[in-house]
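Researcher: Sequence recovery benchmark, item below. Answer with residues only.
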């Protein structure tokens, strides 16, 4: 098992397939983009599948989430999903995406074995979407969401980040739309993972702000800790249910005590936390023909050293050098 010194066991693996993205969200990267990883730096499809196999068959991973960057930009994505779906035991598999390519790929991903998707959409207003992402692709995301639902990649979850002065008034509107379309909405506090290092604690929209805004239109009743388990989102029933809304409050209400995640970057580095400043290189082990047992051992050692928390509540907190697009969501 991937256990740490605090008794937490990682059963959820987040796998970044690429650091590239076809949007330029203001809270993630600059308009001109970033210096992308070279092709030789990225794990190959076979290397990714091998590491996932080791994680599932040797280390107790039961859930795999494919992330990026934008994972739909990975040419071999469908094949990777198909190979992982054939593992014994079979992990549950999901994908976090901006949704732009889903209209084209949702059916193939479902057929390959993908179980569900999380789609990022921060606004229902095309002009605000263009300001936030610096691209005119709003309708493509809406079409991708429709395609995911039609393909059976359910429950379809929608992730939204509220930014002051742009979409911070949209929480009730987003929730009404999500309920109408049978999507599960998750609001995510803006985190200090932008490439520009421009995040400011006193400028962010907090979980408290979001809930206060939602309650101007909806009655919210908490599901409670038993229903939450190790999930990052605190969830509320909307007007008595069955619709639910979640808030992932990584900054103001950290959930580190119940964390069950381990992370693999697109260039083969194990990260114990989104905000970790240390990594363990598995790519070098793969390419030096290390046996599975040695790779599993190093992964275990990495997770054994996982810190108690993200450190966001510490005045000395330092933002990771790598931005979210390079770490994987």
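Model:
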């Amino acid at each position: 098992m991937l256990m740490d010194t605090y008794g937490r066991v990682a059963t959820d693996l987040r796998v970044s397939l690429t650091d590239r993205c076809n949007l330029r969200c203001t809270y993630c990267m600059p308009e001109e983009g970033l210096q992308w990883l070279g092709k030789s730096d990225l794990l190959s499809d076979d290397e990714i599948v091998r590491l996932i196999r080791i994680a599932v068959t040797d280390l107790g991973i039961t859930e795999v989430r494919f992330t990026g960057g934008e994972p739909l930009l990975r040419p071999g994505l469908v094949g990777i999903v198909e190979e992982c779906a054939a593992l014994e035991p079979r992990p549950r598999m999901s994908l976090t995406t901006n949704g732009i390519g889903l209209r084209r790929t949702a059916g193939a991903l479902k057929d390959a074995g993908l179980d569900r998707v999380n789609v990022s959409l921060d606004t229902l207003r095309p002009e605000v979407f263009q300001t936030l992402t610096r691209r005119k692709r709003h309708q493509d995301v809406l079409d991708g969401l429709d395609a995911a639902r039609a393909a059976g990649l359910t429950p379809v979850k929608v992730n939204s980040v509220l930014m002051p002065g742009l979409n911070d008034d949209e929480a009730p509107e987003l929730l009404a739309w999500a309920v109408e379309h049978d999507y599960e909405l998750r609001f995510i506090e803006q985190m200090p993972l932008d490439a520009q290092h421009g995040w400011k604690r006193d400028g962010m929209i907090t979980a408290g702000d979001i809930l206060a805004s939602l309650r101007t239109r909806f009655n919210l009743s908490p599901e409670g800790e038993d229903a939450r388990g190790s999930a990052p989102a605190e969830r509320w029933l909307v007007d008595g249910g069955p619709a639910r809304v979640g808030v992932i409050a990584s900054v103001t209400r950290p959930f580190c005590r119940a964390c069950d995640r381990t992370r693999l970057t697109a260039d083969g580095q194990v990260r114990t936390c989104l905000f970790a400043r240390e990594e363990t290189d598995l790519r070098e082990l793969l390419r030096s023909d290390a046996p599975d047992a040695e790779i599993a051992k190093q992964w275990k050692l990495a997770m054994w050293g996982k810190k108690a928390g993200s450190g966001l509540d510490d005045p000395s907190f330092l933002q990771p050098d790598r931005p979210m697009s390079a770490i994987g969501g």
